[in-house]
Design a protein that fits this description.
globular, 2 helices, alpha+beta
């Protein structure tokens, strides 16, 4: 599965990216990601399922762009902290952690 994750914003306007093909990861990490993707129902979500941003939204919110593809399944969603489906919270936390780890290795 191809996963492309981007987040930006927050108090410090932190920009994070994490792009990966799970076939190229350690088996344990790949299984963890695939399990979280399936349990989150990501491929069943529609952009219309993501609630619109509340009026007067906080400028410190993170904005997320998440794209995944596997075989004939492909999905792209954009949302923020306030509109992110609860089912994605654990997956988002892991993707942010992986993005930070990847960024630290480049520095």
């Amino acid at each position: 599965m191809r996963i492309d994750f981007e987040s930006s914003g927050g108090f410090a306007n932190l920009q994070l990216t994490y792009h990966v093909d799970t076939d190229k990861l350690r088996r344990e990490r790949a299984e963890e990601l695939l399990k979280l993707v399936e349990s989150s129902g990501f491929f069943d979500l529609q952009q219309s399922d993501v609630a619109p941003e509340p009026r007067g939204g906080s400028p410190d919110m993170f904005v997320y762009r998440l794209s995944m593809s596997e075989g004939d399944r492909q999905k792209n969603l954009t949302f923020n902290d306030a509109t992110a489906p609860a089912s994605l919270q654990t997956l988002l936390a892991l993707l942010q952690k992986l993005a930070l780890e990847q960024r630290a290795k480049r520095i």
